[in-house]
C-alpha cells in the first residue's frame, strides 16, 4: 500500500496547485514555468537521496511530493510549447513529441531501477539502501544537469509567431488584465463541449493510472512468480504508448479530425482493457504482453489527442489553461481510480478490478459521443487567415 501511496501523492500534488501553475505558464511564459519545474524536480530528487535508509519513508514521501509538485509546471507544457513554436499543421506532431519525452522517462523508470536495485539483494536491507542511494543520487545529478541546461538554452518564444492563430493570441494576451486568467477559467468551465472532454479525458487517464500503478499486483495474483514479467509488461505498455503518442499526433496533423480520432481511440482502449482482463484471467501471458502494448498505443495516444482537441474547443484561450485542467482531471480521476481499484483488488479479484476499469472507460466513451466536434476554433482561425492571404 505504501508504494501505491507514492504514486497517489504524485497525482494528488498536482490537483490543488494546477491553477497557480497554469497562471505561471500562461502569464510568465514557458521559460519561467519550465525552469521552476526543473528546479523543483532537482530539489525533490536530492531530498530522496537522504531517504535511502531504513525507517526513512517519510523523507522519501516528502521528496516524492516535491517532485509531484514540479510536474505541474511541465506536464501541460508540450501543448503550449507546440502552439508557441510551431505552425498549425505541425502543432499536433510537436505536442506528440513532447508527450513522447515524458513516456521515454517513464520507460527508463521501468528499466533502470530493477537493474540498480536488484531482486537478489532484497533480503539485505543495507545493500538495498546502498543501491537505492546510488539510484537516487544518479537521478538527482541528472535533474540538476537538466535544470542547468534549461537555464542556459531554453528560450521563451521565437522572434516571430509561427501562425496567425498564435499571433492573435499574443495580441489578446498583451491587452489582457491581471484577472484575465480567472476570466479564461470561467470561459473554459462554461464550455459544455470542453466539460465533456474534461471528464472523458479524466476517466481515460484515471483508468490508465490505476492499471499501470496496480499492474504488479494484478499480474502476481495470477502468476505468483511473475514479478519480472510485471516489469516487462509495464515496459511494453509504455513502449506502445511512445509509438501511439507520436502516431496519433501525426494523424491529427494530417486529418484535422479531432472528435473522430478521439472516439476511435476510446473504443479501442475499452476493447483493449477488456482483452487484457480476459487474457490475464485465463493466464495467457503472451497475450497479456500483446494487449498491454495495444492498450499503451491507444490510451497513451489519447494524451496528445486530448491536449489538441481541448485547445481547438477553447481557442482563443491559452493552451496552458486547457491542458492544465485536463491534467488536473486526469490526476483527480487517477487518485480515485487507484484507491478504489486497490480496494476492489484486495476485496474481490483482479478480474473484478479490470471489469471496473472497462466500465469506467465505457462511461468516458459515452461522454465523448456528445462532444460537438465541429467547433474547431483554432483551426478555423488558421483557415481564415490562409483564405485572406490568397485573396491578397
TrEMBL record:
GO CC annotation: membrane
Membrane disposition: Multi-pass membrane protein
Gene Ontology terms for molecular function: heme binding; heme transmembrane transporter activity
Record's keyword terms, sorted: Membrane, Transmembrane, Transmembrane helix
UniProt-listed Gene3D superfamilies: MFS general substrate transporter like domains
Keyword Cell membrane: no
Transmembrane segments: 6-25, 32-51, 57-79, 91-112, 132-154, 194-212, 232-251, 263-281, 287-305, 325-345, 351-371
InterPro entries: FLVCR1-2_SLC49-like (IPR049680), MFS (IPR011701), MFS_dom (IPR020846), MFS_trans_sf (IPR036259)
Location of the Major facilitator superfamily (MFS) profile domain: 1-376
GO biological process, one term: heme export
Pfam family, one: MFS_1
Subcellular location: Membrane
Protein name: Major facilitator superfamily (MFS) profile domain-containing protein
Species, as recorded: Parthenolecanium corni
